[in-house]
Automatic annotation (TrEMBL):
Organism: Trichonephila clavipes (Golden silk orbweaver)
Annotated segments matching region Disordered: 153-223
Protein name (database record): Gag-Pol polyprotein
Biased composition (Basic residues): 213-223
Polar residues bias: start-end ranges: 194-205
Composition skew (Low complexity), residue ranges: 179-193
Amino acid sequence: MSTTVCDTTGHTPTFLLFGRELRTIDDVVQDFKSVVRNDNFIAEITPYLKRFATITEDIRERIETKQDQRKKQYDKNRRPVYYFPGHKVWVTLHPISNANKKTSKFMPKQDGPYLILTQKSPTSYVIASLTNTSEPIATYHISALTPFKDMDTSPVAPLRKIGRPRKVTSKSTQNTHVPSPSTASTAISSRTIHPSTKATTATENSSDSVSSQRRRRIHRGRL
């Protein structure tokens, strides 16, 4: 970890702490004379300190640049929120579990409403209770405040029922022809067969089968 180059500073933590990199076993065993000569040469102390001071200034500027880049990336999709004196807000809570009181799991995440008194900085506001507006309670960051909305306020984006939408039929299918009761009864009566007709049809079918059998016998006798 101490010999890994940091992306923000551009140097290793060892170099920032001691002003030099760590000596490895290979450096001590193979090239010990050069290590002693470079570290203990008195004439190079002053230029070395000046060079390290310049490196420190470069590291400070690099850190500030990285901070600006990360802030820009973090606030890329952020929408600015402005509060004015008299606005009502919710305050985000950070409850801690207590055996004598309540557990933080079931406590509300926000409390309020509270009243905005003044703006202390571009990102912080002083709030007060609705019962005593003249006495400020505390100063909160804008990230801990949420606009208060009355109960009669309609939602900005109303929720919809989750599921597959209902199938919409075309007008041609809706205007299909429905037969009248008289037409339906006539069609049913025309399809209904009287019992006597069924018996006559059965008799004719049986006589036809008998005659066909006789014809087959006569034909066989001739052969």
